[in-house]
Amino acid sequence: MPLSESEKQREVIIGIGRRMYRRGYVAANDGNLSLRLGDDRFAVTVTGVSKGFLTPEDVVVVNEKGELVSGTGQPTSEVLLHLFIYARRRDVNAICHAHPPYTTAFAACCRELPRPFLPEVVVNLGEQVPLVHYAAPGSEELARSAADQVVDANALLLANHGAVTVGENLEQAWYRMETLEHYAQVSYLAESLGGAVSLSDSEIEHLGK
């Protein structure tokens, strides 16, 4: 029997959750995923469940206030982070929040990633990945700060916490997370060789066309 639309959406979230876990971008019950369903409805992962072992019951639907619409689990404690970003970016239909090691290392040091030196970073993430100042996970303060910074960005570093990427769909949001972590790792390695050579303004502008 063909899957219903809601079942397909849950399967997409479950699949990305497994990728996150297998790549080591989350540990234990870390991280969360969401999809915009339209009509102020959002599918989100529940709290306290490993993203590597999600089941359809671990994906619930909430409204724009974070209130449970369908499902029986407790929505992720960071649901406000997702909802505030969706409210600010109408073009965003999916959000991925994870703690990939190299990216999180930069965030833990409250260090911004270097100016882009890889073309793929400019194409997929933009000219800059903002660093959002620390606020308690799940707090409205963090949600508001992230929403303010994501206006012109497709990825964020959360100080002392992790990272967020957004996309038109969950595949795109996930690929941006992979690009972000790869860039953080290459940046770390490049520093041992004296630092990477950044792309020039004209080179970055050309990539944006």
How would you describe this structure to a colleague?
- The structure is a single chain.
- This protein has 209 residues and is α+β, with helices and mostly antiparallel strands.
- The protein has helices at residues 5-22, 79-88, 101-108, 119-125, 140-149, 170-191, 201-207, and strands spanning 32-38, 41-45, 59-63, 68-70, 94-98, 131-132, 155-158, 162-167.
- It has a single domain, classed as L-fuculose-1-phosphate Aldolase (3-Layer(aba) Sandwich).
- Helix 2 packs parallel to helix 5 (140-149) and helix 4 (119-125) packs antiparallel against helix 6.
- The longest helix is centred in the C-terminal third of the chain and has 22 residues, at 170-191.
- It starts with a helix and ends with a helix.
- The mean pLDDT is 94.
